[in-house]
Amino acid sequence: MKLKEKINEILKSLKKLYPDAHCALNFKNPHELLIATILSAQCTDERVNMVTEKLFKKYKTIKDFANTDLLEFEKDIYSTGFYRNKAKNIIGAAKIIDKKYNGKVPKDFDQLLELPGVARKTANCVMGNAFNIATGVVVDTHVIRITEKLGLTKNKDPKKIEEDLIKLLPKEEWINFSHMIIWHGRKICIARRPKCEICKLNRICPSVAI
């Protein structure tokens, strides 16, 4: 089966399995998603959602984040891990957004990349989920692992994996593909114990173990 045919089969199956797939991070506006995504590095979405439930009640605007005390903010996000670096980046990004963009998260991929703590994954996530603009494919640990298992890429580097996926996927699927793969990674293709025997993709997966 050619890769283009395979990706069409994968999309068809994933859409049936996860018709309601969406971003797992809870947010109400672009700056909340930006902050939640920065916090999600090396941390589960579930933990981030627990932290942001309180965080977004305490800090309601970008200016609130920009003006907060660093040590206090470190305590607020401590349980997400790497809290010192995350706190510095979030406050730094908030200061730039407050001063340079009048308190509004820029609706531009390159401008997002200039913010502290923001790389391609975060920028793609914000552009796709806050603004519904497909600038690329979010490549997280689930996407890295499962796209390799499915034989969609041989690369290990997230940027190169994204380049491979962009070539394979129709642009209108860039945003939703990651959500569906992430959901599949949590429900079926679990890292330590993949449920290959009930996986709807097992007939076209070269890594199937039944």
Explain what this protein looks like in three dimensions.
It is a single chain. With 210 residues, the chain is an all-alpha fold. The mean pLDDT is 97. Helix 5 (70-76) packs across helix 6. Helices cover 57% and strands 0% of the residues. It has eleven helices and no strands. It has helices at 3-17, 30-39, 45-58, 62-66, 70-76, 83-100, 109-113, 120-130, 141-149, 158-168, 174-187. The protein starts with a helix and ends in a 23-residue tail after the last helix.
Summarize this structure briefly.
This protein has 210 residues and is mostly helical. 57% of the residues lie in helices and 0% in strands.
Mean pLDDT across all residues, rounded?
Answer: 97
State the oligomer: single chain
What percentage of amino acids are in beta strands? under 5%
One letter per element, helices H and strands E, the order comes to: HHHHHHHHHHH
Number of E-type strands? 0
